[in-house]
Design a protein that fits this description.
Largest sheet: 6 strands, mixed
Distance between the termini: 32 Å
CATH topology: tt1808, chain A
Number of domains: 1
CATH architecture: Alpha-Beta Complex
Structural class: alpha+beta
Strand content: 35-45%
Mean pLDDT: 94
C-alpha cells in the first residue's frame, strides 16, 4: 500500500485467497485491505499513538440514521464522559478532499454533535473545531487529556 502522511505503524496484515487483510484493533478482526481501510487503520493508530486516545474510546464504522436513511461514520472518539468528541471521515488516498467531503461530515455532525472533526485521505488532513455550530479550521486535534 501507498505510504501515507502518518508515522510508520506496525500492522498485522495477512493474505488469503489472493486478497490482503488488515487486523482492525478496534473491531478485533481482520478486514479486507482496501485503499480506504488503509487510511482508516492508519488514522486509528494515529489517534492511539499520537493523541493518546484509549482504544476503548474509539468506535469504527457504525451505522446511524439521518432522515430515515442509513449512514455510516468512519471513526468516532468518545470523551471520558461518553460524549462524541471527534468525528472522522476517511477517504481513499486517491480521493480529493473537496467541498463534497466537507459537506458530508458537516451533515453527519448535525446529528452526532462532535466538538472536533477530521477529514483525511491519508495524504492530506483537515482538522475542524465545531463551537456553537460555527466551524473553524485548526492546525491539529487536541490530545485526549485536553478533550
Amino acid at each position: 500500500m501507498k505510504k501515507l502522511n502518518f508515522k510508520n505503524y506496525n500492522f498485522k496484515i495477512k493474505n488469503k485467497d489472493n486478497k490482503s487483510y488488515i487486523f482492525d484493533i478496534v473491531r478485533k478482526k481482520y478486514i479486507i485491505l482496501t485503499k480506504e481501510e488503509w487510511v482508516r487503520q492508519n488514522t486509528v493508530f494515529y489517534l492511539i499513538n499520537e493523541l493518546k486516545i484509549p482504544l476503548s474510546h474509539i468506535n469504527v464504522e457504525k451505522e446511524f440514521i439521518i432522515n430515515n436513511l442509513k449512514k455510516r461514520f468512519d471513526i468516532v472518539v468518545y470523551s471520558k464522559a461518553g460524549y462524541c468528541s471527534i468525528l472522522i471521515e476517511c477517504k481513499s488516498f486517491n480521493i480529493k478532499l473537496d467541498e463534497k467531503v466537507i459537506d458530508q461530515i458537516l451533515i453527519y455532525n448535525k446529528f452526532i454533535k462532535s466538538s472536533y472533526l477530521m477529514i483525511t485521505n491519508g495524504i492530506n488532513h483537515l482538522f475542524l473545531k465545531n463551537l456553537n455550530e460555527k466551524v473553524d479550521v485548526i492546525n491539529h486535534l487536541p490530545i485526549y487529556s485536553d478533550l
